[in-house]
Amino acid sequence: MSIKRALVSVSDKQGIVDFCRELSALGVEIISTGGTSTLLAKEGVPVIGISDVTGFPEIMDGRVKTLHPAVHSGLLAVRDNEEHTRQMTELGLDYIDLVVVNLYPFAETIAKPDVSYEEAIENIDIGGPTMLRSAAKNHAFVSVVVDAADYAGVLDEVRAGGDTTLETRKRLAAKVFRHTAAYDALIADYLANVTGEPLPERYTVTYEKIQDLRYGENPHQKAAFYRKPLAAQDTLTAAEQLHGKELSYNNINDANAALQIVKEFEEPAVVAVKHMNPCGVGVGASVYEAYQKAYNADPTSIFGGIVAANRIIDADTANLLKDIFLEIVLAPGFTEEALEILTKKKNIRLLKIGSLSTASARKSSFVVTSIEGGMVVQESDVHSVNPEELQVVTTRKPTEEELKQLLFGWKVVKHVKSNAIVLAANDMTVGVGAGQMNRVGAAKIAIEQAGEKSKGAVLASDAFFPMGDTLEMAAKAGITAVIQPGGSIKDEESIKVANEYGIAMVFTGVRHFKH
Length: 515
Ligand SMILES: NC(=O)c1ncn([C@@H]2O[C@H](COP(=O)(O)O)[C@@H](O)[C@H]2O)c1NC=O
Prior knowledge:
InterPro entries: AICAR_Tfase_dup_dom_sf, Cytidine_deaminase-like, MGS-like_dom, MGS-like_dom_sf, PurH-like. The protein is an alpha/beta fold.
């Protein structure tokens, strides 16, 4: 078999003229729709209008142009089925051997900030996916191209053998069904938002590949990195890598964790992350000061860590960063001098991310976690505490400084794997107890890490204390103030201990478990 007749109908016209010119030179007859055929004709490529094939005008603003039996029988006929070929001859229909279609730009349309509902709906392509699906189903005989990246390969095969191979047609067909499925998933998602059904009876998500990864969490696991089609600019999926080796699977998870924490802060902040938990967080008057605090919070653990900042990295900060081994530095930018300093280090990865806004830390979206055989979906934890709603439950109220540190600790503990305890003092973390099976264990780790620094520090707990033991331990370590959700049947036990030691304790009424 050879390709004799192609149907071309594309919204994105890049590369189409050269592709069709080549096809035409190889003896392929080209049929095309409105805008595509006008362009081809203008560029001197011989083209037959779709209406000449269907005997029907393109009507309703292009809503109906290729939706016609003359098109779909030409695409769907089983060429070695006698009944099909008889019908084709009887009705005077011709086969179509190649379909080249890309769709109305639905994603680009809904990405526009001022898009109207009507405009979005008008950009749902019907004729295009129908042709793609007909051709893809009949890939035993028909080639189908939905991606301009495949133009060259198809041309090579047609040049060499008059047609594509069955293997190529299968691959192209599979790509088409992924494409139309993703296209429909985005429409479904858009309409679910319009109708206020974020958790519908079928969850149809679509992601596009950013890059293959060398391996997953461990070298024997295959892995790749994907993004949502309309992911925000201040997410890791939109980060630009300025320097360093390819990101790894673990790098991506850690950098994402660091980014979520740093977005909590309005003031200059730096976060160091190891294994998805913060090992040091600092805020200050400048990124330089914030980094010093994040570093001093735990100079041991930061080694080999991921550092995220919410301000542009300047030369002074870069000079500090360069002194230790870091996997990644992630920031809204780097001054030229800073880049010069840091790019001297071969092993550091530098990521530039769109300007960060604390608003995005407050914007709820749905996040998915896989389980074997399924997944669970929940809103992201975007709650932030309003200082006026804090309930002081002890005789002593926190001082202004204590309150500042409590609110800082609360922002951090939200991002620490449960059970989580964070000790803070002087706008930095001094102890982090993460992922323990009991709360006293988490507190013990945080207090041990803080050492002398626990004296006068404050403590944040991601969930309530089931009994008074954690508070007893905190008091003995010199903690002066505590922030926690409250709500335990034994709250009174903790309040009693706090009062005995003169600790000021506030309840937030909100829990921040993180698994
Ligand atoms: N309605 C139809 O019969 C139809 N046939 C093809 N299209 C789309 O029209 C676009 C190309 O239009 P034009 O060649 O007029 O620029 C392509 O994205 C193609 O997928 C159609 N449009 C939408 O449904």
